[in-house]
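Lab notebook: predicted structure, single chain.

Context: the supervisor wants predicted structures on file for every construct in the current expression panel, including those that have not yet been purified. This is the next one on the list. No modifications to the sequence; it matches the entry in the shared construct table.
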Amino acid sequence: MAKGSAKARRAAGAKKNDLFAGKEKQRDVRTANIVAARAVADAVRTSLGPKGMDKMITSPSGDVLITNDGATIMDKLEVIHPAAKMMCELSKSQDVEAGDGTTSVVVLGGSLLEAASSLLGKGIHPSTVSDAFQRCAAEAEKVLKEIAIPVDLSDRDQLVRTCRTSLNSKVVSENSDLLAPIAVDAVLGVIDEKLDDNVDLTDIRVLKKLGGTVEETELVDGLVFNSAASHAAGGPTRKENVKVGLIQFCLSAPKTDMENTVVVSDYQQMDRILKEEKKYIIGLIKKIVKSGCNVLLIQKSILRDAVNDLALHYLAKKNIMVVRDIERADIGFISRTLGCQPIAHVDAFTPDRLGTAELAEEIPTPSGRIIKITGVKNRGKTVSVLVRGSNRLVIDEAERSIHDALCVVRSLVKERYLIAGGGGPEIEISLRLSKLAQEIGGMEGYCMQKYAEALEVIPYTLSENAGLHPMEIVTELRKQHVEGKRTSGINVRKGKITDILEENVVQPMLVTLSAIKLATELCTQILKIDDIVPIR
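Prediction complete. Output recorded below exactly as produced.
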């Protein structure tokens, strides 16, 4: 009898061990995923906020990149673990949705995973944690809309203040007073304030030109080309009362197919070929001159020369300004800007397909010449931004900063609400969720309380990166929000808690809302993964 009971106990123990082994594998997979994702979050945490540190990124080829833009850092990171890759994709998703807050969303995602890890360690099922976190994200959206301030797109000063907040955390923060108005005017120039609810950023062309300083960055009400006019045969470099033609055919002699060749051994036949070539090109030029065109834009060709020296000679004699090597990808933008139509054949070169402008001129810069076409009469809803910088690192970071500022204005066009910055909204949401968690109670309430605590990572990190005492700052901030001061936030310049609205530190509601939603989605997705299955 004793032997039988011992066998039964061993069998039961074996089943228990088998069950434990299965659970242990699932736990190990989740732990590995959370650790990998949190490692990525920790890598960018020190870059959060206006006092955040910059990262120097080096490539195997020796290229160096200095930035504190979360999306750029995540894009350049070489990660192998699948969960770490998900964290990098999280930053890209935030960049697409809101354009700003790419560092915040990664830091927030890492904090939520840390909270989830502690809950799993207490034996709470991942599905319970996921459901509670998703409920918290929905409640957070309600709180944000309650504390948000409606924004009027006609209030340019308010939009500039919002852009300045975004730019203050960038490498080019000292130029925020110049770049913020440029970003606002660029977006307002391509939308209808009353009708549009989104912005197509392809209508805003950002062109980089090395040389000068960031202070020389300008918004061009027209078109800019990063190339010089043709100087062959003394062609003009400045034209007034411009009529612009955009051609997609070649001003050169036709060629045979790739497989065919023509061998000419007779000098008379060679002279005849040259005479026919000249006659052919003169025929093309005559039709261009007849239309009244005096500025000619020629698309780049890969099959043969888009324009040869003979054609440039005749164009210069007719005093027509020539801009060569227009990229195929730029044709649509140029057409919309100048109000002209691309011409694919010389027979279609008619005056009604030309664009008109007041001035086209070539301007010298330290690193080469550029061409500006200004005073466009039938300009479409497009603008160009000419970014200048003393070196490649500065100019690249200035371009990324302008992109983030443009995205901030786009966020306000999509969701026309502002909220205070400085970690205030996160603390307000945290307090509301803590109160709701106490009312709900039970396991779900406990999970919601952990979610609320995880949101405090944003103000904590802001104060930590600014060299302040995080515990004191966050405690004081929580105290002021409990007293009803919703607009209180961390003033990193003064090193204390102030009314952040009076300091003009504001941000679009969409940035914080998108960050919370995306970070929560990532967390719940990782929690529901219990195995990694490699395939061949």
